[in-house]
């Protein structure tokens, strides 16, 4: 007999939004994917310069998650010093039109959204 917690976990595991989209749906992952699309392949330090607000730890973690999920390919070249490059996989490239569409939607609706947010700000 399965417990409620086991049933809940199984639903989370099969839910595409929670299991897949949430992994790359944060602001840094989307930005890394877009930057890699424009600068494919890229080295770690190059990505850090192209996304100046991201810390090296967050960039490293983001790249690792994207690699684990098969969206980014990491290639290590046996040179001295070692050279590592990151590039989008074919699966990662399929996200580009979706991200660009979402970005377009956000641009079109930003004024309206910001106006609505102001209505919820506490008055001084």
Name the average pLDDT.
Answer: 87
Number of helices: 7
Largest sheet: 3 strands, antiparallel
Distance between the termini: 56 Å
Strand order of the largest sheet: 1-3-2
- Report the count of strand segments: 3
Query: What integer value in Å does the Rg equal?
Result: 19 Å
Structural class call reads mainly alpha
Task: Describe the protein in words.
The protein is mainly alpha-helical and 124 residues long. 64% of the residues lie in helices and 11% in strands. Strand 2 and strand 3 (83-88) form a beta hairpin. The mean pLDDT is 87.
Q: Features of this protein?
A:
single chain; 124 residues; mainly alpha; three-stranded antiparallel β-sheet; 11% strand; globular
Overview in brief:
The chain is mainly alpha-helical and 124 residues long.
Write the layout of secondary structure elements.
Blueprint: H1 4-14, H2 16-24, H3 27-38, E1 42-43, H4 44-50, H5 56-68, E2 72-77, E3 83-88, H6 90-93, H7 96-118
Antiparallel strand pairs: 1-3, 2-3
């Amino acid at each position: 007999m399965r417990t409620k917690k086991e049933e809940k976990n199984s639903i989370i595991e099969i839910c595409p939004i929670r299991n897949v989209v949430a992994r790359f749906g944060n602001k840094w992952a989307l930005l890394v994917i877009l930057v890699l699309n424009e600068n494919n392949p890229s080295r770690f330090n190059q990505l850090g310069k192209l996304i100046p607000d991201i810390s090296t730890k967050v960039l490293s973690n983001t790249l690792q998650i994207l690699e684990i999920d098969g969206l980014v390919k990491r290639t290590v070249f046996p040179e001295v010093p070692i050279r590592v490059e990151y590039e989008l996989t074919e699966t990662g490239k399929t996200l580009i039109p979706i991200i660009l569409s979402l970005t377009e939607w956000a641009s079109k609706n930003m004024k309206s959204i910001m106006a609505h947010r102001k209505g919820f700000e506490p008055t001084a």
